[in-house]
Design goal:
61 residues; mainly alpha; 0% strand; Motility protein; YjfB_motility
Length: 61
């Protein structure tokens, strides 16, 4: 195997490793920011509010 061919294969492998590392870091940053956004959301009520309760009055005579 020629030296230039061997070095070319190593460079290609190094590029792939760097790309995977960058993608991994990007994914980790995305997950961290998503978790931070979820933690900042206001606490939801435990019981869902009734859609009509307290807003309408039904008067029958």
């Amino acid at each position: 195997m020629e030296l230039s061919s061997f070095m070319s294969a190593q460079v290609a492998q190094l590029q792939q490793t760097v790309q995977m590392s960058i993608m991994n870091q990007s994914l980790n940053m995305g997950v961290a920011s998503s978790l931070q956004m979820l933690e900042q959301l206001p606490e939801q009520q435990k019981a869902a509010a009734h859609p009509h309760k307290g807003t309408r009055i039904d008067i029958s005579v």
